[in-house]
Amino acid sequence: MDFTLTAEQQMLSDSVARFIQNEYDFETRTRLVAAGDDDAANWRTFAENGWLAVSSPEELGGFGGSPIETAIISEQFGRGLVIEPWLGCAVLATQLLLASGDTAAQAEWMPGLCDGSRRLAVAWSEKEARGVPHVVAVRADGDARLTGRKTLVLGGVGADAYLVTARVDGEIDARGGIGLFLVKAGAQGLQVTPTPLQDGSAVAALTLDAVAARRLAGDGLAALEQALAHAVCALCAELVGGMERAIEISADYLRTRQQFGVTIGSFQSLQHRIADMSAEMELARSMLFAALASLENDDPADRGPVLSGAKALIVSAARSICGQAIQLHGGIGMTEECAIGHYFKRAIVADALFGGRTLHDAICAEALQAELTQAAA
Amino acid sequence: MDFQPDPTLEAFRETVRAFLRDNLPDDLVQQTIAMVSPRDAIIQWQRILTAQGWGAPYWAKEHGGTGWTVEQQLVFDEECARVGAPTLEGFAHKLLGPVLNQFATPEQWETHVPLIMKGERHWCQGFSEPGSGSDLASLRTRAELRGDRYVVNGQKIWTSLAHRADWIFLLARTNADAKKQAGISFLLIDMKTPGITVRPIISIDGAHHLNEVFFDEVEVPAGNLIGEEGAGWGITKFLLNNEHATTADLPVLKAYLARMKTLASSLKIGNTPLVERADFAVQIARFEAELRAVAMMVQRSAAFHGDQGHYAHALGSMLKLRATDLQQRMTVFLVEMLGDDGALVAPDEGKGLTSEMFFRRAATIYGGSNEVQRGIVAKLMFGF
């Protein structure tokens, strides 16, 4: 293990940080949110800088990086509360396409994903799924025509096509019988409804009525779980960046806000609170590293509880820290025009993405029960 | 940045495991979770380690140590704790040892270190006083130079293991006129010197770890001064800087988790083992996850070893905050798991766990209280 960024990683981190600083300040972001859409120019910037291709294999047009490079970008995007569909398209969809093992689909789509000319989004979630990937009610008939409803499709507005999980066999929560399908935007019977999230980003709900699709090769569920592992790590990295920035903004506020004739940062109660927030953030960062280590080293079967534990702990830390950041700001922290509340909003949304705290706690608990039952037998 | 396992470190782990398998006598293995092993066990174990060439696992080769990396030291500690090996004499190895290696004269080093390597000279730390806890630099114990000796008068308190110690390393004021930090010196004193009285303090775990130590006209050879007169505060900061990774007590945290898992299988409500209940399973699983994060935080902090920068220092304080809080919550939950027995002085199950839980209240007080650590973090990270 080595915790120091390599020269290349440092350059990557710096270049994303520069973008946030120079081209994505909070006012700019606020204008983007108000416009109700992400900015195509920003996506081009991501592509031109190679960020969209950073963790894709070289033979498919990528730079051959690891989830660490994805995490480095995600962390900076988290600091800037970037609303572009980095997580949904550049991480989740790209990783799902790679995990599918469908070489034809990869050859067709990867170059466009890497150069930013095309976007894929993943429609896996459903209202009843609540973060469980194998809860799938959308059905595929024998001609690969899909019917049903998908929710919370990250990057789903303006995507060129969708990777959709659908059931070819079995009950709604059976692990078997799940296929992965490619559906083109504009396909007959497909309705894409933009649904704004609390944090200002837009996702989509898909209604499918006998929509023609192409089934991708491979085990759809295994591929989705692999891609979700990458997405969870990226989201955790984003939250660590968000927490770090929320603490910095709060510290700046404590240095400047005056009450009782002094800066409020001179009060020990507030100093201790921000110290505790920092300690919790560093614990969350440590957990992110543990998750990345597991993603890199462990078998998919073993890393489930590690990633679930990471998601549960890091999202909880983000909700706690960003909530306290509002408290440190007092009344101004409650206003829409103050940045700090938006970090809290992102933390709240993050819990709903890829399964909430309670679900991930339960996954860890079930793994523990299995471990101890096995040990007793 | 990468998270690949280091093959040389894993090979080292195997070496340590094999050594422990072959060399740790059964009668030295301790089954209970405890802070410090009996004196005899420490001496025997130290001899075995020294014979292996591992007598000083935390020191550089030039000082007679193993020269292990911080990562190797963590592996060594972890593997020793996993099989219940005795502890080393921690004051000597982790606190005083590095001070001697850095600041002692060759004569002083020769006087003490060979005995540390034999396990025969045990130490205690004379820092806190009744009026000087968090404000350590306000200490009032005096050491007055009279001819070739210092004469020490004053009182120390919370002195862990003073009743077992052969020697004490002591902070005393040698110059009453200097600014408060500048008047402090670092002295080594034989506990058998006339004028030293040790009085036990029984702590809320019902045990005797803590003491008051009184000094009444105690004569100390001037040659027992470490560094210059007045250099004691700087030496202390050096010493405490080495302390953070230790206060995380990662091996102990891992032992708590292992104990939780054992109890979760053995204790039942009706016919149902606790682990089969979602309420208990979720709590234990949360502790397991949090411990994984703390373990990584220990690695991160260890990787900064020797770095005197603000961030490295603050990370050590933040680690102390998080790890000691976890120690307290885990031990409280362990007692909760005991059910009715958790209330009993002499329970059927989980003997020692309630003591451990009570003792852990000290973790957020010693080594710089957690309030002091928060102040350090606020100052180093944000300039408050």
Provide a descriptive summary of the structure in words.
- The complex is a heterodimer of chains A (377) and B (384).
- Chain A has 377 residues and is of the alpha+beta class.
- Chain A is built from eleven helices and ten strands.
- In chain A, helix 1 runs parallel beside helix 4, helix 5 runs antiparallel to helix 7 and helix 7 packs antiparallel against helix 10.
- Chain B folds into three domains: 82 residues, no CATH class; 109 residues, Butyryl-CoA Dehydrogenase, subunit A, domain 2 (Beta Barrel); 140 residues, Butyryl-CoA Dehydrogenase, subunit A, domain 3.
- Chain B has twelve helices and ten strands.
- In chain B, helix 4 packs antiparallel against helix 5, helix 10 packs antiparallel against helix 11 and helix 10 runs antiparallel to helix 12.
- The chains are: A alpha+beta (377), B alpha+beta (384).
- The interface between A and B is large, with 54 and 49 residues.
Identify the quaternary structure here. heterodimer
H and E string of chain B: HHHHHEEEEEEEEHHHEEHHHH
Count of distinct structural domains of chain A: 3
Unreliable residue stretches of chain A: none
Q: In CATH's first tier, which class of the largest domain in chain A applies?
A: Mainly Alpha
CATH class of the largest domain in chain B: Mainly Alpha
Number of domains of chain B: 3
Quote the beta fraction of chain A: 5-15%
Mean pLDDT of chain B: 94
CATH homologous superfamily (4th level) name of the largest domain in chain A = Butyryl-CoA Dehydrogenase, subunit A, domain 3
Roughly how many Å apart are the termini of chain A? 35 Å
CATH architecture of the largest domain in chain B: Up-down Bundle
